[in-house]
Amino acid sequence: MRVFMTGGTGFVGTALSRELVNQGHEVSILTRGVSDDQRLPKGVTHIQGDPTEEGPWQGQAAENDVFINLAGASIFRRWTSEAKTLMRESRIRTTRNLVTALEGRKGSDTVLLSTSAVGYYGFHGDEILDEGSPPGDDFLAVLAKDWEKEAIRAEQYAARVLICRFGIVLGRGGGALAQILPLFRKGLGSVLGDGNQWFSWVHEQDLVNIFLFLLEQKSLSGPINVMAPEPVTNRELTKALGKALGKPALLPAVPGFVIKMMKGEFGSVLLKGQRVIPKKLLDGGFHFRFPTIHEALTDLVG
Questions:
Q1: DSSP symbols for 219-258
Q2: Please, which pLDDT band fits residue 34 given cuts at 50, 70 and 90?
Q3: CATH code assigned to 2-168+201-227
Q4: What mean pLDDT is predicted for residues 110-138?
Q5: Element spanning 81, H or E
């Protein structure tokens, strides 16, 4: 298959593009430019362009069979009005332009895998959520809902659309672990708030395998929760990471009000979370290599 990818130079995109090439697929990545520290995996080509703007890249994109949309500014920042605008426009405009590029493929065998996030569901405490659960009404939930709406437009061009709602991706090359490992290695890790907030996560290798699985399972479409089957609380995650590193977290919990002072509105994401399960993947027969947090962290940092 010929695969076109946005957001392909990031943590997830690099791992996914490398595996797609290893599987024998042709992969092209849309980039504004490739710097020395963003070397593409061997066998991956790049197309220059800005995904938030229309341009010649859309014609080149239409020559592919599979479209993977990973682009979007990081939410791991203080949410100023400017940051919110960036988070929204980087997702909505990129997805809209990518879907427009598919118009010329109407009638062809086309697959779009477009990223979303568990933030779609909002905050529900201990309630177990699956793909049939309704959206929330906070900033991230509304953003995810609008983001997904743009991707679903590709169905009018006869594309099979999969909305991949990510949990937090755990891996060696970046993501959440890259941010918290330095503190834990120094014995400075601690619980956030009361520690009871849920953390839906996925090992990077399982995420890559899920994408390959979704490409093969042509009966699947619509929203797909991309996370391990056993979410954990923040307290359980803290304990498991300390154990994997041999450095138990002994410091007192960071009070919620301190996190809100430091992180602003984004602090709610750290203090609430979602308890989400990948029902459609499990029902479809997908086998997780790392179903538990202990197995995942032992592999990644143990």
A1: T--EEEEES-S--EEHHHHHHHHHHHHT----SPPBPHHH
A2: low
A3: 3.40.50.720
A4: 96
A5: helix 81-101
